[in-house]
Here is the input.
Amino acid sequence: MSEDRWSARDTTPSAIEAALRDLLARRYRAGRPFVPARVMNLVVIVERAFRGEVENRLARVGRYHPSRLILCAVEHGRRTLDAVATVAAPPGEPRAGELAVGRERVEIDMGPAHLGRLDTIVDALVVPDLTTMVWAPHGHDDGVEALRRLANIVLIDSQDLPDPAAAFARAEDLTRSAYVVDLAWLRSTPWRERVAATFDPPPLRRSLGEIDRVGVRHREDSAAAGALFCGWLASRLGWRPESLDRRGARLHGHSRARRHQVTIDLEAVELGAPGLAGVTIEMASGAAVTLERGPGGLRAQRRDPDGSERRWTVLGASRGEGGILGEGVRQALLRDPTYAPALRAARVMLA
Amino acid sequence: MAVRTREEAAENPLVEGLERLPVPPTSLVIFGVSGDLARRKLLPALYNLAHEGALPERFNLLGVSRRQLSDDDFRAQARRSIEEFSRREPDPPVLEELLSHMQYLAIPFDDTEGYGRLARCLGRLDEEAGLPLNRAYYLSTAPEFFPVIVENLKSADLHRHDAAEVRAIIEKPFGTDLPSSRALQAVVSSVFREHQVFRIDHYLGKETVQNVMALRFANMLFEPVWNRNYIDHIQITAAEDLGIGSRAGYYDQAGALRDLVQNHMLQLVALTCMEPPASFEADKVRDEKVKVFTAIRPPTPEDVLVNTVRAQYTGGTSGGGEVVGYLEEEGVPAGSHTETYAALKLEVNNWRWAGVPIFLRTGKRLTRKVTEIALLFKPVPHQAFQTSGSVGVQPNTIVLSVQPNEGVTVTLDAKIPGPRMRIRPVNMEFLYGSAFMSQSPEAYERLILDAMRGDATLFTRNDEVDAQWSIIDSILGAWHARDGDGPLPSYPAGSAGPPEADELLGPGREWRKL
Here is the structure.
C-alpha cells in the first residue's frame, strides 16, 4: 500500500478536511495519482485503548471496504483533538485495464466530552452525497445519538450487549431514524437462505403451514442471532410471537400460527465462532429438516413422515467474523425489508 | 412440468428480502467437460457459486466427455482447473465437498447406449436425493455435436421429466449462418420447448452490459435525449490487441463478423437501442431486443459495398514487439479471405432512431483492447462562445465502457479558467471500481445460476438469433461473392484499423480514438 500521511495535534475538523484535499493534490503533483473510491463514509467510534482490535476487524473486511473511514478514538481525560489523515492506494503501478483506487482514512483522538457534539466534528469530514454509516462497537451511545442526523445507516451487533432484549430495544429505536445493519442478523443469513431454499420446491412450500416446532442452537453469546432467526420465521409466516421462558441454557415458548401452536426452543451450545450452530424445523406430519454447521457447508438432514432419513451437505464457505463485518459494510448499500419485522417479533419473544 | 397447482404457484414467503434467491435442486450435466471452456470458466464458476453458498441445496455435476476417465481422474482435473482459474483462492473444505458432488461419464456424443447410462445415473441421483432433481444439460462441445446431443437426449427420453424441469444450455455459436442456425433450431425445437432453451452469449452476463439497461431505464437524465433528436451517431467498438493465437482453425472459419458482431456486438446494439420494456421479465426484455433487430434492414449487396469494410492485419508492431500478419499466422491457409477486422454501418429504422447511423467495428491486433458503446450527440444549434484560442464547444458524448475499464463517461464542455470565455471538453466519469470496490462475479457464474433458476432474461431467444443471422448473412453473402476480387484491404498490426473504415463514417465524423 503506498500511503501519504498528515498529522496534527490540537487540530480542528476544517484543518483535517483541508489536509485530505491537500494530500490528494500532492499525490497528483507527484505523478502518483489514483481515483478516490466513492462508496461510503464509515464513522467508527471506539475506545482508544481497544482500537487495535477494531482495526484488526476492519483489516479482515475483505473486498467491501468503506471508501472514507473516520475513526473516532475516545480517550478519557482528553480535551483536544489530535488527528492523522492518510490516503492510500495499492502498491505499484496498476495492471493494464485496472484502476488504482485510493482510500482515505482519518483517525481522531478525542475525549468523552466531544461525543455529545460529534456531529460538528464529523460533518466536515464526510464526503457529501455519499452514504454515511456509523458503527460504535464499544457502546458510546451518546456519540451515535449525536450523529443521528448524519447517519443514513447504523451498524450494530445485537450480541454486543449481554442482554439481547436491551439490544433489540436499542435496535428498534435506531430503525426510526436510520437503516440498521445488524451483524447478529447477518450471522443468521446463510441459515435463512437455506431454510428458504429447503421449502422452495412447490411440494414442500405447503408444509410451511405445518411447522410445529423450531429449535435453534447457538453459541452462548449469540442468542440474539437465534432470536432474530425465530423472529424472521414468525414474521414471514404470520405467527403471533409470545414471550419465551428461560430454562437453564434454553429459552422455551410458543408462537401462535393460524390454526396451531408452534414450539420455539433456543438453546446455547458450545461453538468456536459466534452465531448459530444448528436449526431444526419440525412439521406436524413428523417430517423434519435439520441444518448443522460443518466443514465446507451446512450438514443437512431431512426426516420424512415415514421416518426415513437423508443427509447431505449444502455447499458454502464460512465467512468468518471478518466476512460478517464486510457483509455488514456491503449490506449498507442494500435494503432488507425483513429485518425490522423480524426484530419486532424477536423483541416480543425475549420480552 | 405440466400445469402448476395452486400450491406450486404460491409465493415462497421466506424468499422476501434474501439477496440470493433459492435455486431449485439440480443435476447439471456438462457435455464437453474436458474442453477449454469448462476448464477455464465453467468449473471455476461452479466453485465460486459453491463458495458463496449460491448453488442449489441439492446439487450434482455430471461431467460428460468422450475421453475415458475415472471419477477420481475427473475430480483431479477439476481441482486443477479450479485452483488455476478461480477468481478466488479455493477454500479446501468447500472444494473437497464440491468435488465429492462431481461424477464423470465417458460417452461418445453419438453413442445412444451412453445416454442410457446417463439416464440411469440421473435417476440414481434423484433417488439419493429423495426428490426429482431438475436437469440442466450444458452443451459446451464443438458446435457440430449440438444437434447430435440434443437428439440423443430425446432418444433416451432425457428431454422431459414429469416432476422436474429440464433445461438445455447451449454455448455459442448457434449456427454459422442463417441456414445452419435454422437447421440447428429445427432440431432443438423438435426436442425442447423454447422456455427450456438457454442460448449463451456470455457478454450478457457481464455486469457492465447489464448496466446499459440500468443506466438507460433507471435514470431520468439520459432517456429524454436518447434518440434521433439529440444523437448524431453511435459507435460500438470491440477491439483486441491480440492476434488469433493458436485458434487459426476456428478463426479462419469464423472471421470477425461471426466471432463478435453476430452475437456480442448486435446484443450491444439491441441494449442501446431498445425501448424500455414494461418489466424486466425475460420475454418482455427479449421482445424489445427483437424489435430492434427486425428494424435493422438486412443490407443488399449494394449496401454492403458502401456500408461495410473488411480487412486483415499485416505484420507490424504490437505491444513493443514485431508480430506477423494474419496470413503468416500458423494454421492460416494461404490466400485466406477471412476478415480479422470488420466495420459496418447499420440503421435502426424506427421512430426513435431513423437517420441515426450506428457504426460497429471490431478487429484483432488493433492498438489496444477496448469494448465500448459511444453515443455522440449533435452539436448545439448556436455557438455563442468564441472559438479562437481553444478547442471550442464540442458535441457531448456518452461512453459506456464494457472492458477493460468498466464505467460511464460523459463529456461536457466547460470554461477554461482564465479571463476569457474559452471552452474545452471535460470528462465526468463513473467508474465501477471506485464506486463499488467489489469484484464483479464472472459472467458465467451469473449465467449458470440464472439457467438453473429458469430465468432467461440474459439468454438469447430463437427469434433474436434468427434476426441476428438475417443481418449478418446478407453481409457474408455479399463479401463471399467478391472473394475472387483479390486480397482484402489490410491494416498493420498495432494500428487503429484500415483507412477504408474511416471513409465509412462520412464527412464530419471520425472514429473515436482506441
